[in-house]
Every structure is written in structure tokens, then in C-alpha cells.
Amino acid sequence: MNSLMIRRLIVEALLEVAPEINEAKIDAEAELREEYDIDSMDFLNFIIALKNSCGVSIPERDYKNFETLNRAVNYLRKKLPSLRS
Amino acid sequence: MDIVMPSLGADMEEGTLIQWQVKVGDTVTAGDIIAVIETNKGAIDMEVFDSGVISKLCLEPVVTVPVGTVMATMVSELDSNHEHEHEHEQSTEHDDEPNTELKSVADRVPASPAARLLAQREHINLSSVTGSGPNGAVLLRDLYLAEPHRPAQKEFNTPIENNVPDDDNKMRRSIAMVMEKSKREIPHYYLSTEIDLSTAKNFLDDVNAEREPEQRILLLALLLRAISTVLPKHPQLNGYYQQGRFEEKKNIHIGNTITLRNGGLVVPAIHNVEQLSLNQTMVALRDVIGRSRSGHLRSSELSDATITVSNIGDRGADAVFAVIYPPQVAIIGLGKPQQKARVIDGDVKACFTITVTLSADHRVSDGVTGAKFLNALDNQLQYPEKL
């Protein structure tokens, strides 16, 4: 799975909790929770959506790796090594 | 005349009544918006196609019904004259031969059945209305003339300024009405305390480390549980103040302020939190937040909270001093959980803290009650495993 595909998975999970986000305008370096008004329940649902789409159950201690879209992509790339292309 | 769920295209089979914009007795003109309905085309402002007076609302929002279902009835302008004549006939009949219902309450104010029904629904005291019917009987039209607080129908036609979507405007207006009433009538007092949540956070971290995301517990659920555990010992904070007296509630229905993504706010209640386990509280919280955003809250959830918790802190404020939702008598504000330096036994320690505030109704309780409640909450939160 390449970075673009991972990015796609993350964006789709994000859209599940914040459907009003304009995908074309996502700033990959912006703080996700600040920028898109993600509260703690939204964030939990985002993590659940990611688990459902890519099968990775992200522990709470790794939540800090989801501050920005770019960081999240890097984190998931490491978590999905067998799928890395 | 029946007002039915409209068909907005051949592909529409059902619609969801989101909100009434009128109440029984309102005068409407063809083209007025009477309800917000959610359809497969999004949220729709439902217009009325005739002019007259709304006589009955058959559905409680939020409810989904097939196209063609009767949602409300209205007396159109033409029907209206006819109905008054009809009432007149009935009243005359009753003069000669009162039915059993009238006999049993012979001393009550004479009124037509329709007027009585409307007065009951709208909490209008019939004896305060001058009747224009036979023997001074109160007729439907007398209620319309007498009711001074009935919003003029033009209120719904207010031109929309700037580019605020209409839905936002409506929600804004309804929040404005409730908050205005609260600040006009309720003498608030405010207390705040900083609570050390380090133990509670460690407890949750441990619990959640073992769990899949779907089963994880949010801090908010733990706080709701703690509140419901402590509240029974402070009954002056849980209940309603109405008609000059406080009515204590045994069950704890916690209203949660939930921000909708398109703007606006709903405050649905989680019922009987005192009877729920921590896990069940989390499930209920997830459920109610989900349905708030998808628009399928039950009418009871929006009307029977006995106390409210505002969680605006999750969005960044250190502390929130909230405004009470009448007829409730207290609202708890949860600030932003954050690390802070605290002095414990002479040593400075990094602690995970939250500022919890209480706004309460001074007609029902005093500051000392509120302070005791906040202290008890603090103590309870030092033993999260008991929640």
C-alpha cells in the first residue's frame, strides 16, 4: 500500500466524522483536531473508522501520531509494512 | 384540513419531521414555513399551501413517516367560519341538555370543546379570557384574540440577513429564546474548582490499553458517571423549578450539550445515568452523540433532562460558566483537561487537571450546597475504579 492509498484511507475516515470537510482543501500539515473541529468523540470515531478500513487498531498512546495528516500517513506506513509497495 | 408529508419528487418515499415552526393556534398564510423536515434531499423547510389556523400537531419530532401521512390539521379561513357556527350550535345544545362531562364540572368556565382543547394545550387559563359565545362561552377565536404572547406569524418570515443558512438561524433563534428566559428568570450563582484527574486518567489509560477502539471509554463518560454518583446527595441541583416551586427529581437524566457540525447545538439527555455502569454510560453517550449528528433524537431526550453538562472544554476553553436550561436548576461546565503544576504535600507535581464549574439556581440552592457538590465530585474522582 503506497502513501497515496494510505492518505486516501485516512481522509475517508476523517470524512466519516467530519463530512463537511472539503477534501481538496485539506492542509496535510494542519493540526487535524484544531483545523477540523474534532472533539474527543469524533476522534475516537475516526480511530474506529480507520480500524475498520485498514485493520489497524491504534492504541491510545499512539494518538499523538495523528496530529497532522502527514504524520498519520507516516505512522500508518510503518504499521502496514507487509502491505508497503 | 389535513397537512400531509409532502412528496418532493417521485424518489421520495418518506420524510422526517425535524422541527415544528408553528404551534397549535398559530395563524398561517399560504407559503409560510411550518416545519423542518429531513428528506433524501436534505433538510427541507415545509410550507403550508393554505391560510388559516393550525388546529392540531399530530406528530412529535423527530419522527420519520411515509409521504402522505397526516402531520397536522388546520382550520382554513373558510372552514374557520363554518367551525365557529358549528361550535355555536353545540353550545346551544349543551345549554338545554348538558352532557355528562359538562355536568361533572358544572362550575368551570363555559367554552367550546375546541377552545377548551386549545387552552389546555397552550396552558391558557380560560377564566382569564372574555368569551363571545352564548352565555359568555369562550370560543376558539376568543383565545386567538386574548393570547398576547403568541408569536406573530411574520416572525417566521424574517428576512435572512448576511448569508447565514436558514436552519442555523432557526436554531440560533430557539437557543436565544431559551437563554433569554434563563437569564431573565434564574438568579445564577457560579462556582469553580480545579480537580486533579491524574488517578482517573491513569485508570482510563489502563482500561483502554486493553480495549479495541469501539470499547474504549472517554473521560467524559467517567465524569458523567461521577456526577450521577454524587448528585443524589445534593438533590437541590437535580430537578425543575416551575410555578414558583422546586420539584426534586429522583432519576438523573443528564443533558449533554452537543455541537452540530453545521453549527448549532442540541442538548439531548442520557436517561437514568445513576443506574448505568461506566461501560453503559459510554455506550449511551456514543449513541446520543451519534443520533444528534444524524438527526434522530427522540422527543423525550430533548425535553426531560434534569441537569445539564456542558463539555465545551473539549474544544479548548479552560473553564466554562454555563447558562442553566430552564426549568432545570443547575448546569455543570467541564473545562479543558490539561497538565498543570500542583503542590501536593509540599512538592510540586505535574498533574492532569480539569476545571469543573457549577452554575446553579439561587432560588433553590445556596453556594454552600454547590461547593459541597463540587468537593464531593472531586473526592469521587479520586476513586475512579468505583465508578
Give, in order, the helices and strands of chain A: HHHH
Q: How would you sum up the major sheet of chain A?
A: none
- Calculate the terminal CA-CA distance of chain A, rounded to whole Å: 5 Å
How many β-strands of chain B, per DSSP? 19
What can you see in these coordinates?
The complex is a heterodimer of chains A (85) and B (387). Chain A is mainly α and 85 residues long. In chain A, 53% of the residues lie in helices and 0% in strands. In chain A, α1 crosses α4. The N and C termini of chain A lie close together (5 Å). The model of chain A has no long low-confidence stretch (mean pLDDT 89). Chain B is of the alpha+beta class and 387 residues long. Chain B has 9 helices and 19 strands. In chain B, strands 9, 12, 15, 16, 17, 18 and 19 form a 7-stranded mixed beta sheet that branches. Chain B has a 4-stranded antiparallel beta sheet with strand order 1-8-6-3. In chain B, α3 runs parallel beside α4, α7 packs across α8 and α7 packs across α9. The longest helix of chain B is centred in the N-terminal third of the chain and has 20 residues. The interface between A and B is medium-sized, with 16 and 19 residues.
